[in-house]
Amino acid sequence: MSVQAISWALEQQIVTDASARHVLVALANHADNTGRDAYPSVNLLCRYTGLKRRTVLDKLKLLQDIGVVVRGNQRIAEAKIKRADRRPVVYDIRIDLGVDSFSVTDEKENGHRDAGSAPRRKSRDADAAPRFDDGVQMTAERGADSAPKPSLTKNTHTHMDWPCDSPREKYQLDYDWKPNLDMFYESCLRRNMTEIVSPSPEELANFVGHYSEMDRCLTDRGWNDLLARWCSENRKGEAKKKRAKSSSCGKSYSSSAEENKSGSNRAMSKFQASEDYKDELPRAELAEHLGRRRADLIAKRYGSDKVGAPAVEEMRRTLRT
């Protein structure tokens, strides 16, 4: 808890949204004297403010957009909270913003108050009495040195001015993230994926869009290794779909080939039957077996004195009956 951070959050006029100011005060309750290293959970901020979780997240984003709150050193939460899925985000409050305006206002108010008040007559005892604003120790013996006054200079340089580029630094993925191709290729080699040199634009867009919405922090090597696994699983799935599609096409082709074969066999059997009955019978022989009237009907149907396989087939059916 920092009185300086809470006082600044209450007096600042940069944030005018009421809910955002409430979230800022709750966040300052966990910061140090310089406004840094505040990492309360979202659920705790909801309990402080009485707001919904979605509203608290929106107000935190608003505070970051304004510039009052920035992301701090995430290693502090990492050192105290081992589980990454339960680790909150560390924020730093820019309490150096608006300091000049507050000091000028306070000086004007003090000037008006001193001008309106009458000067007080000091006696010898009053001059000898110690005052709190003189920096005199109340319990010190006579001749003791006065307590040092606190410094009025503000240290405006924080650790956010020099972003950490260490590959071991864990961070959350955003939409502007680009993979390190060397680390990505090493991850592919460890997975025996020598054919994958770089991720395709579609794979990279799907990967970034999926993990940027998650509160997950990894190192640079961890993100590149996860991208290699993403590409491997994606391409294995596509290859499996292609094999299933080709096998279904092969089955349909084989079934159609079998149907064509059976149809050709039936046609060949019919052709052989027609070849067996290729020899034509004269009309007189047909009339002798079937009768004159029926032979005339058959000859009229087929339009010739000689009839072929249909007439012979009909003749055989008649003889069987």
UniProtKB/TrEMBL annotation:
Residues 106-160, 241-278 are annotated as: Disordered. Pfam families: HTH_36. Residues 106-115, 124-134 have a biased composition (Basic and acidic residues). Signal peptide: none annotated. Residues 246-256 have a biased composition (Low complexity). This is Helix-turn-helix domain-containing protein. It comes from Halomonas sp. RT37.
